[in-house]
Amino acid sequence: MANMFKETSKHKSPVSVEDSVKTDKVISELWSWCSGVETLGKILFVILIIIGIITSIIAGFEPDGTSYYGEVKYKFNFGTFFMNLVDAAICAFIEYCIYHVVALLIGSLASITQHTKATAKLLEYQLSKDEPVDVANGEIGVDNTSSQRFCKICGTEISEDADFCPNCGTYQS
Length: 173
Description:
The chain has helices at 2-9, 17-20, 25-60, 78-128; strands spanning 61-66, 72-76, 133-134, 139-140, 149-150, 157-158. The mean pLDDT is 82. By secondary structure, the chain is mostly helical. It is elongated and about 115 Å long. It starts with a helix and ends in a 15-residue tail after the last strand. Strand 1 and strand 2 form a beta hairpin. The chain has four helices and six strands.
């Protein structure tokens, strides 16, 4: 969080449109975090699957009595192996989904931050060019300073000092 404030203190007004939409250090770091979390989720998924296969094989061997000399005999139970394998796969999938959702949230934050900063910088650049801006409609380059009036009934443009609409005759308050 402190890095964001340091970045803000070094603010420079944009000198071009390309400068306005350029990605800064904070946004780049958010995108790298997004990628890193997604990669970590994939790596842990593979590790959990490998561990799940190994533990499922071990769990599949069940004791099947003892021999005459006291040695324990084992048999392989495919049902136990398969159930442990499915359990490990479900756990690995849930882990991956959690990491994927976190990566999506970080990516969303990066995208929102990037678009908000770009919009603000574009507006700042436009204002520095002394072009009129209509903030209410979100339009840049529109001059809304003229005093145009329109009839509230038919929408015809009427003069500033007219009391009645020249088209439909409605009284204008």
